[in-house]
Amino acid sequence: MQTRVKSVRALARGLEVFKALHHHRSASLQELHQDTGLAKPTLLRILKTLEEGGIARRSASDGRYRVSASVRFFGQNLGEEDAIAELAAPVLDRLCRDVIWPSDLAVYKEGAMEILESSRHQTPFMVNRDRIGFRVHMLMSAMGRIYLAFSPAAERRAILMRLSRSNDPYDHAARNPSTVLADLAKDRARGYAVREAGYGRWGYTDRSRAGAIAVPVMQGRRVLASLSLSWAAGATTREQMVDQHLDRLKSAAAEIGTCLPAPAA
Predict the structure, then answer these.
(1) What pTM was estimated for this model as a whole?
(2) 92 in Cβ contact with 85 (< 8 Å)
């Protein structure tokens, strides 16, 4: 007589939530509730279990749940961006607790810098509540300028060529590459870049009342991302931010770069 084996209902529910997370790439509690039909208290218990097991993570910057970058099953590598964001999140949180002002981590993507992670949720100061996925311009933002300053010459030329064909007024400086390259050389020499004055006055989100500095996140000689520190204009000066916090910002960027796994050969 064959013994009937019962399935584990809790495990089945956990797998259902994992599949939903994997499908959506990121999801809110409400989206998971709608997708799985599971009650929110049940979902919270499952998500907590997945987080404790290193299978899922909740981003503090937007509250959305994601599959952990360390997960490599279901036939898909979640990619370098997920790994950078996951490893950077606690570093950004510690930096914000230390300096109070918020930081953003961004990577280059198709002509702009895209925010992967942020500590803006943690600061008591209102400084442009940009969300994950927000894109900032290359030549006006500190993050874009420092990425260009440390990128390989061929990549830098390709990006500037792309920007020179753009109709966006914030990209027009790329039409004078000699001036841009000279400015980027200065940024590279001092190890950080500064947001251009007045950036944000023309459309988009009003960012003109905030200042920012940024440093590169390096892995060896390869630039992976940019890490910025922002402040409200009038609350402090660029000189004060550089004097008081640049070393901490560089240390945070170095920690992120060191934690990342080496790229595949």
Answers:
(1) 0.73
(2) no
Cα–Cα distance for residue pair 74/125, rounded to 1 Å: 41
For residue range 226-257, what is the model confidence (pLDDT) as tens digits?
Answer: 999 999 878 888 999 999 999 999 999 999 99
Q: Containing domain of residue 53, as a range?
A: 9-67
Going along the chain, which residue ranges are E strands? 26-27, 56-58, 65-67, 103-109, 112-118, 135-136, 193-194, 210-219, 222-232
Same domain, 205 and 143: yes
Whether 157 and 235 share a structural domain: yes
Residue 24, domain CATH? 1.10.10.10
Q: How many angstroms separate the CA atoms of 187 and 141, rounded?
A: 12
Instruction: Label the pairing between strands 26-27 and 103-109.
Output: unpaired
Residue 177: which H helix or E strand, with range? helix 177-190
| R_g over Cα of the chain | 21
Query: At 122, which helix (H) or strand (E)?
Result: none
d(CA 115, CA 131): 7
Looking at the structure, tell me whether residues 151 and 192 fall in a common domain: yes
pLDDT digits (tens, 9 = 90+) for 39-51: 888 889 888 888 8
Strand 112-118 to 135-136 pairing:
antiparallel
- Total of domains in the chain: 2
